[in-house]
Design a protein that fits this description.
Length: 170
């Protein structure tokens, strides 16, 4: 009989400790679940640095291929087209740019046909810039005296999704 009482007491202690341990584990799990669920896992900071850096001091290391031109430097003839003189342009809004003149011509015709009520053809400037990697063609809209004037007009312009203002005097 004494053995039964001792055995029952041991069972009671074991059961009490087991329940206490189980309760402790459940509370610990709930606290950790709340803590990890309500916090930010990681924060990606805004990237403000330059995407690439060309070193000024190469520390004696020779950088290869600095004098190479692009493979796209094909000396193609400029099409027989009435390009505008951009010497008197200050600030202008870029409507379209491409390195293929056929795409420029198609876009210009589409623009003048579909938007003829909005755009006067005198306000459209078509010009090109030759660089070492090829010829880039531009379609721009109006001439503005300052960047602020071009920016204000850009906000009211509905023919482009986002405005690029070109400073042609630099």
């Amino acid at each position: 009989m004494i053995k039964r009482i001792i055995f029952k007491r041991k069972n009671n202690y074991i059961l009490k400790y087991f329940l206490l341990l189980l309760l402790f584990i459940i509370i610990l799990y709930l606290i950790s679940f709340y803590y990890f669920n309500n916090r930010e896992y990681f924060v990606i900071p805004k990237f403000t640095d330059k995407y690439f850096v060309i070193p000024t001091n190469k520390e004696g290391e020779v950088v290869d291929y600095l004098d190479k031109k692009s493979l796209n430097n094909i000396n193609d003839e400029i099409q027989d087209f009435d390009f505008k003189n951009i010497d008197e342009l200050d600030f202008t809004i870029q409507l379209y740019s491409n390195d293929n003149f056929e795409n420029i011509f198609k876009h210009l015709n589409n623009l003048l046909v579909n938007k003829k009520e909005i755009i006067d053809h005198e306000d459209i400037f078509v010009f090109y810039k030759k660089t070492e990697i090829g010829t880039q063609y531009f379609i721009t809209y109006k001439n503005y005296i300052s960047k602020n004037n071009a920016s204000e007009a850009c906000d009211l312009l509905t023919i482009v999704k986002s405005c690029i203002i070109l400073n042609l005097q630099n």
